[in-house]
Amino acid sequence: MPQSDVPSRDVLVCPWCKLRQFAGTAFCRRCRKPLTEFHLEIPIASITTEQKSLATLVGNTLRELRKRRRYSQLTLALKIGSHRTHVSRIERAQVIPTLPFLVRAAAALGVERLLIHVRD
Question: Average pLDDT of 85-108?
């Protein structure tokens, strides 16, 4: 069967109403709520020189996504399978989360894609 010259398009699922739709806009066509993508850009300099800045970047991003969903720390922790104080410590940059924790948090927050962009 010959291949089509039509480019394939990304399909997103709205975390609220579950409508499948093509990527391209930031909001769902049906419920008009945001289709969140989790972008976390980590400068290499912050990893090698100051670990606290990396923890702050990750913690602030997690807090922002949690508040957009109107979740409490306890609600998010229960969805992740963690403890509320662990979520709190990550948000306050006392702990740097592991990659599996970030993936579970992204899934609990209804994020379609987890993009960690490391650049120099």
Answer: 90
